[in-house]
Amino acid sequence: MKQKTKTRPEQRLGYFMVLIAGCLWGTNGFFVSILNDLGVQSSTVAFLRLAVAAVILAVMMLIMEGKKLFKIDKYGLLACLALGVFSQALFNYSYNEAIEHVGVALACILAYTAPIFVCIMSRLFFKEKIGPVKILALVVNIFGCVLTVTGGNFTSIKFSVYGAGAAVLAGFLFALMTIISTTTTSYHPLTILFYSFVFGAVTLGAIARPWNAIAQAASLPLLFAVLGYCLIATVGSYFVYLRGLAKKLETSKVPVVTSVETVVATCIGVFVFHEALGFVKLIGIALVLASIVIMNMVKPK
What we know:
Elements: H1 2-25, H2 28-37, H3 42-65, H4 74-111, H5 114-126, H6 132-150, H7 161-182, H8 189-208, H9 211-217, H10 220-245, H11 254-258, H12 260-271, H13 279-295
Helix pairs in contact: 1-10, 1-12, 2-10, 3-4, 3-8, 3-10, 4-7, 4-8, 5-7, 6-13, 12-13
Protein backbone atom coordinates (compact mmCIF):
# COMPACT_ATOMS: atom_id res chain seq x y z
CA MET A 1 0.00 0.00 0.00
CA LYS A 2 2.81 2.44 0.85
CA GLN A 3 4.40 1.86 -2.54
CA LYS A 4 1.17 2.74 -4.33
CA THR A 5 0.77 6.08 -2.57
CA LYS A 6 4.35 6.96 -3.42
CA THR A 7 4.12 5.85 -7.06
CA ARG A 8 0.85 7.51 -8.03
CA PRO A 9 1.87 11.13 -7.31
CA GLU A 10 5.12 10.42 -9.19
CA GLN A 11 3.14 9.09 -12.15
CA ARG A 12 0.76 12.05 -12.07
CA LEU A 13 3.78 14.36 -12.26
CA GLY A 14 5.11 12.28 -15.15
CA TYR A 15 1.86 12.53 -17.11
CA PHE A 16 1.77 16.27 -16.43
CA MET A 17 5.30 16.58 -17.81
CA VAL A 18 4.45 14.73 -21.04
CA LEU A 19 1.36 16.96 -21.27
CA ILE A 20 3.65 20.02 -21.11
CA ALA A 21 5.86 18.41 -23.76
CA GLY A 22 2.79 18.02 -25.98
CA CYS A 23 1.95 21.70 -25.47
CA LEU A 24 5.49 22.68 -26.49
CA TRP A 25 5.30 20.42 -29.57
CA GLY A 26 2.12 22.28 -30.45
CA THR A 27 4.27 25.31 -31.29
CA ASN A 28 5.93 23.38 -34.16
CA GLY A 29 3.56 24.77 -36.77
CA PHE A 30 4.14 28.34 -35.57
CA PHE A 31 7.91 28.12 -36.03
CA VAL A 32 7.72 26.11 -39.26
CA SER A 33 5.37 28.74 -40.73
CA ILE A 34 7.82 31.51 -39.85
CA LEU A 35 10.75 29.57 -41.33
CA ASN A 36 8.81 28.75 -44.49
CA ASP A 37 7.98 32.45 -44.89
CA LEU A 38 11.73 33.11 -44.67
CA GLY A 39 12.22 30.81 -47.66
CA VAL A 40 13.34 27.64 -45.87
CA GLN A 41 12.00 24.30 -47.16
CA SER A 42 10.60 21.60 -44.84
CA SER A 43 13.57 19.24 -45.19
CA THR A 44 15.97 22.09 -44.38
CA VAL A 45 13.84 23.11 -41.39
CA ALA A 46 14.01 19.54 -40.04
CA PHE A 47 17.80 19.46 -40.45
CA LEU A 48 18.31 22.87 -38.81
CA ARG A 49 16.07 21.87 -35.92
CA LEU A 50 18.22 18.86 -35.04
CA ALA A 51 21.64 20.29 -35.89
CA VAL A 52 21.23 23.57 -33.99
CA ALA A 53 19.53 21.79 -31.07
CA ALA A 54 22.54 19.46 -30.82
CA VAL A 55 24.88 22.46 -30.62
CA ILE A 56 22.71 24.09 -27.92
CA LEU A 57 22.68 20.84 -25.95
CA ALA A 58 26.45 20.44 -26.23
CA VAL A 59 26.97 23.91 -24.73
CA MET A 60 24.44 23.20 -21.94
CA MET A 61 26.09 19.88 -21.11
CA LEU A 62 29.57 21.40 -20.96
CA ILE A 63 28.39 24.21 -18.70
CA MET A 64 26.49 21.86 -16.38
CA GLU A 65 28.94 18.99 -15.88
CA GLY A 66 31.81 19.30 -18.33
CA LYS A 67 32.53 16.14 -20.32
CA LYS A 68 30.68 13.88 -17.88
CA LEU A 69 27.30 14.07 -19.64
CA PHE A 70 28.86 13.00 -22.95
CA LYS A 71 29.77 9.56 -21.55
CA ILE A 72 27.43 6.80 -22.73
CA ASP A 73 27.67 3.02 -23.09
CA LYS A 74 27.10 0.92 -26.21
CA TYR A 75 23.41 0.23 -25.51
CA GLY A 76 22.67 3.91 -24.94
CA LEU A 77 24.49 4.84 -28.13
CA LEU A 78 22.55 2.23 -30.13
CA ALA A 79 19.28 3.53 -28.67
CA CYS A 80 20.26 7.08 -29.65
CA LEU A 81 21.20 5.87 -33.12
CA ALA A 82 17.76 4.28 -33.50
CA LEU A 83 16.03 7.40 -32.16
CA GLY A 84 18.02 9.72 -34.39
CA VAL A 85 17.74 7.73 -37.62
CA PHE A 86 14.20 6.35 -37.31
CA SER A 87 12.22 8.66 -35.00
CA GLN A 88 13.86 11.93 -36.03
CA ALA A 89 15.33 11.80 -39.56
CA LEU A 90 13.18 9.15 -41.28
CA PHE A 91 10.03 10.30 -39.46
CA ASN A 92 10.47 13.84 -40.79
CA TYR A 93 11.36 12.58 -44.26
CA SER A 94 8.40 10.17 -44.54
CA TYR A 95 5.95 12.75 -43.16
CA ASN A 96 7.12 15.36 -45.66
CA GLU A 97 6.80 12.78 -48.45
CA ALA A 98 3.25 11.98 -47.30
CA ILE A 99 2.24 15.66 -47.34
CA GLU A 100 3.67 16.05 -50.83
CA HIS A 101 1.80 13.03 -52.26
CA VAL A 102 -1.53 12.96 -50.37
CA GLY A 103 -1.82 16.46 -48.85
CA VAL A 104 -1.75 17.71 -45.27
CA ALA A 105 -5.20 16.41 -44.29
CA LEU A 106 -4.73 12.72 -45.13
CA ALA A 107 -1.08 12.78 -43.99
CA CYS A 108 -2.19 14.03 -40.55
CA ILE A 109 -5.06 11.54 -40.34
CA LEU A 110 -2.86 8.53 -41.13
CA ALA A 111 0.04 9.76 -38.98
CA TYR A 112 -2.34 9.85 -36.00
CA THR A 113 -2.27 6.05 -36.05
CA ALA A 114 0.79 6.48 -33.79
CA PRO A 115 -1.14 5.83 -30.51
CA ILE A 116 -2.39 2.52 -31.94
CA PHE A 117 1.16 1.42 -32.73
CA VAL A 118 2.32 2.47 -29.25
CA CYS A 119 -0.51 0.49 -27.65
CA ILE A 120 0.34 -2.66 -29.64
CA MET A 121 4.09 -2.40 -29.03
CA SER A 122 3.53 -1.68 -25.32
CA ARG A 123 1.57 -4.90 -25.10
CA LEU A 124 4.26 -6.88 -26.98
CA PHE A 125 7.36 -5.46 -25.28
CA PHE A 126 6.20 -4.25 -21.86
CA LYS A 127 3.20 -6.58 -21.31
CA GLU A 128 0.87 -3.64 -20.62
CA LYS A 129 -2.81 -4.51 -20.51
CA ILE A 130 -5.15 -3.21 -23.21
CA GLY A 131 -8.61 -2.90 -21.72
CA PRO A 132 -11.88 -1.42 -23.01
CA VAL A 133 -11.17 1.98 -21.41
CA LYS A 134 -7.85 2.31 -23.26
CA ILE A 135 -9.46 1.27 -26.55
CA LEU A 136 -12.25 3.83 -26.03
CA ALA A 137 -9.68 6.54 -25.25
CA LEU A 138 -7.70 5.69 -28.41
CA VAL A 139 -10.79 5.80 -30.63
CA VAL A 140 -11.98 9.10 -29.15
CA ASN A 141 -8.47 10.52 -29.40
CA ILE A 142 -7.91 9.64 -33.06
CA PHE A 143 -11.37 10.84 -34.04
CA GLY A 144 -10.81 14.08 -32.11
CA CYS A 145 -7.40 14.68 -33.72
CA VAL A 146 -8.86 14.15 -37.19
CA LEU A 147 -11.68 16.65 -36.57
CA THR A 148 -9.32 19.18 -34.96
CA VAL A 149 -6.89 19.06 -37.89
CA THR A 150 -9.39 18.93 -40.76
CA GLY A 151 -12.34 20.81 -39.28
CA GLY A 152 -14.49 18.14 -40.91
CA ASN A 153 -13.48 19.27 -44.41
CA PHE A 154 -12.21 16.27 -46.37
CA THR A 155 -12.69 17.73 -49.86
CA SER A 156 -8.97 18.45 -50.29
CA ILE A 157 -7.97 14.84 -49.64
CA LYS A 158 -6.12 13.10 -52.44
CA PHE A 159 -4.84 9.53 -52.38
CA SER A 160 -1.81 7.59 -53.51
CA VAL A 161 -0.53 4.26 -52.23
CA TYR A 162 2.98 5.67 -51.77
CA GLY A 163 1.78 8.77 -49.91
CA ALA A 164 -0.57 6.80 -47.65
CA GLY A 165 2.20 4.31 -46.89
CA ALA A 166 4.60 7.13 -46.05
CA ALA A 167 2.03 8.67 -43.66
CA VAL A 168 1.41 5.37 -41.84
CA LEU A 169 5.19 4.83 -41.67
CA ALA A 170 5.52 8.28 -40.10
CA GLY A 171 2.96 7.30 -37.48
CA PHE A 172 4.87 4.09 -36.75
CA LEU A 173 8.22 5.89 -36.51
CA PHE A 174 6.79 8.49 -34.14
CA ALA A 175 5.37 5.68 -32.00
CA LEU A 176 8.77 4.00 -32.01
CA MET A 177 10.21 7.09 -30.32
CA THR A 178 8.02 6.50 -27.26
CA ILE A 179 8.94 2.81 -27.09
CA ILE A 180 12.70 3.34 -27.45
CA SER A 181 12.72 6.38 -25.13
CA THR A 182 11.06 4.29 -22.41
CA THR A 183 14.13 2.03 -22.37
CA THR A 184 16.56 4.95 -21.94
CA THR A 185 15.28 6.38 -18.66
CA SER A 186 18.44 5.30 -16.78
CA TYR A 187 20.49 7.79 -18.82
CA HIS A 188 20.52 11.56 -18.41
CA PRO A 189 17.91 13.10 -20.76
CA LEU A 190 20.40 15.63 -22.16
CA THR A 191 22.78 12.81 -23.12
CA ILE A 192 20.07 10.91 -24.97
CA LEU A 193 18.83 14.05 -26.72
CA PHE A 194 22.30 15.15 -27.79
CA TYR A 195 23.32 11.89 -29.45
CA SER A 196 19.91 11.25 -31.02
CA PHE A 197 19.86 14.77 -32.49
CA VAL A 198 23.40 14.33 -33.83
CA PHE A 199 22.51 11.02 -35.52
CA GLY A 200 19.28 12.52 -36.84
CA ALA A 201 21.02 15.61 -38.22
CA VAL A 202 23.70 13.52 -39.95
CA THR A 203 21.04 11.28 -41.52
CA LEU A 204 18.92 14.23 -42.71
CA GLY A 205 22.02 15.99 -43.97
CA ALA A 206 22.87 12.94 -46.10
CA ILE A 207 19.28 12.68 -47.42
CA ALA A 208 18.33 16.34 -47.96
CA ARG A 209 21.74 17.97 -48.57
CA PRO A 210 20.44 21.34 -47.30
CA TRP A 211 23.71 23.30 -47.45
CA ASN A 212 22.87 25.54 -50.42
CA ALA A 213 19.35 26.22 -49.11
CA ILE A 214 20.74 27.30 -45.72
CA ALA A 215 23.30 29.59 -47.34
CA GLN A 216 20.64 31.27 -49.49
CA ALA A 217 18.20 31.83 -46.59
CA ALA A 218 20.80 32.89 -44.01
CA SER A 219 19.75 36.04 -42.14
CA LEU A 220 19.32 37.41 -38.61
CA PRO A 221 15.54 36.72 -38.54
CA LEU A 222 16.31 33.13 -39.60
CA LEU A 223 18.78 32.77 -36.73
CA PHE A 224 16.25 33.97 -34.15
CA ALA A 225 13.47 31.78 -35.58
CA VAL A 226 15.71 28.69 -35.54
CA LEU A 227 16.87 29.41 -31.97
CA GLY A 228 13.26 29.79 -30.81
CA TYR A 229 12.26 26.60 -32.59
CA CYS A 230 15.16 24.67 -31.06
CA LEU A 231 14.84 25.99 -27.50
CA ILE A 232 11.04 25.72 -27.18
CA ALA A 233 9.75 23.04 -29.55
CA THR A 234 12.84 20.82 -29.60
CA VAL A 235 15.22 20.91 -26.62
CA GLY A 236 12.57 22.05 -24.12
CA SER A 237 9.83 19.69 -25.31
CA TYR A 238 11.98 16.56 -25.59
CA PHE A 239 13.74 17.21 -22.28
CA VAL A 240 10.45 17.50 -20.39
CA TYR A 241 9.12 14.48 -22.30
CA LEU A 242 12.03 12.23 -21.32
CA ARG A 243 11.88 13.43 -17.70
CA GLY A 244 8.21 12.51 -17.70
CA LEU A 245 8.83 9.04 -19.14
CA ALA A 246 11.33 8.42 -16.34
CA LYS A 247 8.43 8.50 -13.83
CA LYS A 248 7.49 4.88 -14.68
CA LEU A 249 4.50 5.72 -16.86
CA GLU A 250 2.33 3.30 -18.79
CA THR A 251 3.76 3.72 -22.26
CA SER A 252 0.43 3.17 -24.02
CA LYS A 253 -1.07 6.22 -22.26
CA VAL A 254 1.68 8.64 -23.29
CA PRO A 255 0.75 9.41 -26.94
CA VAL A 256 -2.84 10.16 -25.96
CA VAL A 257 -1.65 12.68 -23.36
CA THR A 258 0.81 14.33 -25.78
CA SER A 259 -1.95 14.67 -28.40
CA VAL A 260 -2.78 17.94 -26.63
CA GLU A 261 -0.29 19.16 -29.25
CA THR A 262 -3.15 19.34 -31.77
CA VAL A 263 -5.20 21.52 -29.43
CA VAL A 264 -2.32 23.96 -28.87
CA ALA A 265 -1.51 24.05 -32.59
CA THR A 266 -5.15 24.82 -33.41
CA CYS A 267 -5.30 27.59 -30.80
CA ILE A 268 -2.12 29.15 -32.23
CA GLY A 269 -3.66 28.94 -35.70
CA VAL A 270 -6.77 30.76 -34.50
CA PHE A 271 -5.21 33.45 -32.30
CA VAL A 272 -1.95 34.08 -34.17
CA PHE A 273 -2.71 33.28 -37.81
CA HIS A 274 -6.44 34.15 -37.60
CA GLU A 275 -7.60 30.78 -38.91
CA ALA A 276 -11.30 29.97 -38.69
CA LEU A 277 -12.46 28.01 -35.64
CA GLY A 278 -15.61 26.17 -36.65
CA PHE A 279 -17.98 24.06 -34.61
CA VAL A 280 -16.41 20.82 -35.87
CA LYS A 281 -12.95 21.88 -34.70
CA LEU A 282 -14.37 22.70 -31.28
CA ILE A 283 -15.87 19.20 -31.12
CA GLY A 284 -12.47 17.79 -32.10
CA ILE A 285 -10.71 19.75 -29.34
CA ALA A 286 -13.30 18.56 -26.81
CA LEU A 287 -12.80 14.94 -27.91
CA VAL A 288 -9.01 15.18 -27.64
CA LEU A 289 -9.25 16.57 -24.11
CA ALA A 290 -11.90 13.97 -23.23
CA SER A 291 -9.64 11.15 -24.47
CA ILE A 292 -6.87 12.32 -22.13
CA VAL A 293 -9.29 12.24 -19.20
CA ILE A 294 -10.62 8.79 -20.25
CA MET A 295 -7.11 7.34 -20.62
CA ASN A 296 -6.20 8.54 -17.13
CA MET A 297 -9.24 6.75 -15.71
CA VAL A 298 -7.21 3.55 -16.21
CA LYS A 299 -5.70 2.67 -12.84
CA PRO A 300 -1.89 2.80 -12.70
CA LYS A 301 -0.05 -0.48 -12.47
